[in-house]
Amino acid sequence: MNTYRPNHRMSYQTEELVLDDIDIKELRTLILHNDDVNTFDWVIVSLMDICRFSSEQAEQTAVLVHYKGKARVTRGDYDTLRPKRDAFIERGIKATID
After folding, report:
1. Quick check: is 3 in a domain?
2. Phi (first) and psi of residue 67, to 5 degrees
3. What is the DSSP letter of 15?
4. Model-level pTM?
């Protein structure tokens, strides 16, 4: 029988975000934009290839892009994000760095 214990505390471990050598002011965001040309499958495969997303994460991001018009994909400095943006553009997927 399960007994509810209101005073029982659970501890959670969280990952610590480490931003080595990146000034917060220099952080940028890679954004994917919706279009009427690319298929969900192509966007999902591209997210997995370029950003190393899991299939689930890529699918969720593709759905966000479709229904919201755009979605933030990742953050970093401009020099890190530019090759990823360029790779999306080479695949015909509109991507910008904000």
Report:
1. no
2. -85, -25
3. P
4. 0.74
Kindly give the interhelix angle for 78-90 and 40-51, rounded to the nearest 10 degrees: 150
Based on the structure, what is the number of domains in the chain? 1
In a domain? residue 2: no
pLDDT in tens, 39-78: 999 999 999 999 999 999 999 999 999 999 999 999 999 9
Strands (E), the chain: 28-33, 70-76, 95-97
DSSP state of 16: P
Residue 88 located in a structural domain = yes
| Position 31 in a domain | no
Range of the domain at 75: 38-97
Q: Which helix (H) or strand (E) holds 53?
A: none
